[in-house]
Design a protein that fits this description.
Strand 7, helix 13 (353-365) and strand 8 (370-379) form a beta-alpha-beta unit. The chain has helices spanning 2-33, 43-65, 71-79, 135-145, 164-178, 197-209, 236-241, 249-261, 267-272, 278-284, 312-318, 333-336, 353-365; strands spanning 90-97, 100-107, 115-121, 148-152, 185-195, 220-224, 341-349, 370-379. The longest helix has 32 residues, at 2-33. It is of the alpha/beta class and 397 residues long. The protein starts with a helix and ends in an 18-residue tail after the last strand. Strands 1-2-4-3-5-6-7-8 form an 8-stranded mixed β-sheet, sandwiched between helices.
């Protein structure tokens, strides 16, 4: 019996030691491959948040390797494990809009008039995120703006590839617009809103609904550091912020490939720019080009890249990157001209900064009113920390 216990203790000790070494290795890898620029406020706090995310991913990989669950499933579980109780100021209810799970937040206080409506699409690279991960944010929006907020639990990649997430968000929005009276919402004051991948979905839904005469016209689109194109991962913001937490350049390309194909098979081609033929890139260069980025955003360093061509085989897998419902920055002017008033938030230390800047220019060039807010010390994902106790950041608030 003593021998068995000794062996068991040694096994557990070895497992724990190996686990610690793996985690420490991941942290060391994080420190050597990431960069927190001097302009970021509270850099140590950002480093802590990033290390926590890295450790979660490492534990998920260990569990996947020993056959307990997939890494993606574990990370999703950890992200959504916190549940909030009742809110004294809100009615909160889980519903289904056209087979799409939604969570609706309605202010309890009586209103003399119809309320604003907000369709909210969460971020998470189309792979992560849920109704739970953005619960605090949606409650805050509903309370502070006295709006009816509908958070959409769209299907996630890689299990559900493009256009699943887009279709879910579109179907849920159409359903809401058709039943506004049921929720006491003013048909003239409905907005779509999203952060990161959710900003992508909000922009795509807004474009699709722009020409619809059978539904109320959207009042506005609110795009929080949105991902809007997958043609060029070498724009100035990608070069400057490629190693800045919480979204590395490689991860941005990885996520959009997961959404498109359910895998990251052609990651290197996407990163170097050899996934789209030169003639097609030149055709879109009027919209996706470093030339359209103001010079002040290039001072931290930018090197123009030579355009690379791609093989027919690779383009066959990547050609849907040219669809505006996946990459809204590529929509035709006739669509962009019909878009509602827009709010765009960008962060200086974010690989997606230039997507927002390019879309801002496109909208303004086509006569769409844009309110633009730029966080000089902001980084990708900062809005998720606005109410995270001691790990919150002033810019997020």
């Amino acid at each position: 019996m003593a021998v068995v216990l000794t062996v068991l203790v040694l096994f557990l000790a070895g497992f724990v030691a190996g686990f610690i070494l793996l985690v420490m290795g991941a942290i060391n890898f994080d420190f050597s491959n990431s960069e927190i620029p001097p302009g970021v406020n509270q850099p140590a706090k950002l480093r802590i948040v990033h290390v926590v995310l890295i450790c979660t991913a490492v534990v998920g990989k260990i569990l996947e390797n020993i056959g307990i669950c997939s890494q993606v499933s574990f990370v999703r579980y950890m992200q959504g494990r916190k549940t909030l109780g009742a809110d004294p100021k809100l009615f909160i209810k889980d519903l289904w809009f056209e087979k799409v799970p939604v969570r609706i937040y309605q202010p309890k206080a009586p209103s003399a008039s119809q309320r604003r409506g907000v369709m909210f699409f969460h971020g998470g690279g189309w792979v992560f995120g849920s109704l739970e991960t953005h619960e605090k944010l949606c409650r805050f929006i509903a309370r502070e703006s006295e709006s009816v907020v509908v958070s959409v639990g769209y299907r996630l990649a890689p299990e559900h590839k493009y256009p699943a997430a887009y279709e879910d968000c579109l179907n849920a929005t159409e359903h809401f617009l058709q039943h506004l009276e049921r929720y006491g919402v003013d048909p003239a004051r409905v907005t779509v809103c999203g952060d990161s991948a959710g900003g992508n979905l909000a922009a795509a839904v807004s474009q699709t609904l722009a020409g619809r005469s059978d539904l109320p016209r959207l009042r506005a689109q609110i795009l929080i550091y949105p991902s809007l194109q997958a043609l060029d991962f070498n724009l100035p913001s990608y070069q400057q912020n490629g190693g800045v937490p919480l979204l590395f350049r490689e991860r941005a390309a990885f996520y959009v490939l997961q959404y498109l194909n359910g895998n990251a098979t052609n990651l290197e081609e996407v990163l170097e720019g050899s996934h789209i033929p030169v003639d097609i890139k030149l055709n879109y260069r009027k919209w996706v080009s470093p030339d359209n980025i103001p010079e002040k955003f290039k001072v931290r360093g930018y090197k123009p890249r030579v355009l690379l061509d791609c093989t027919t085989e690779v383009f066959e897998k990547m050609k849907r990157f040219c669809e505006p419902t996946l990459c809204p920055l590529l929509a035709e002017d006739t669509i962009v001209q019909q878009l509602p008033e827009s709010f765009i938030l960008t962060c200086e230390y974010d690989v997606l900064r230039d997507d927002g800047l390019l879309y801002k220019k496109r909208l303004e060039d086509n006569g769409v009113r844009v309110t633009w807010y730029h966080l000089e010390d902001g980084f990708h994902g900062i809005i998720n920390s606005f109410n995270s106790e001691w790990l919150s950041f002033a810019s997020g608030k």
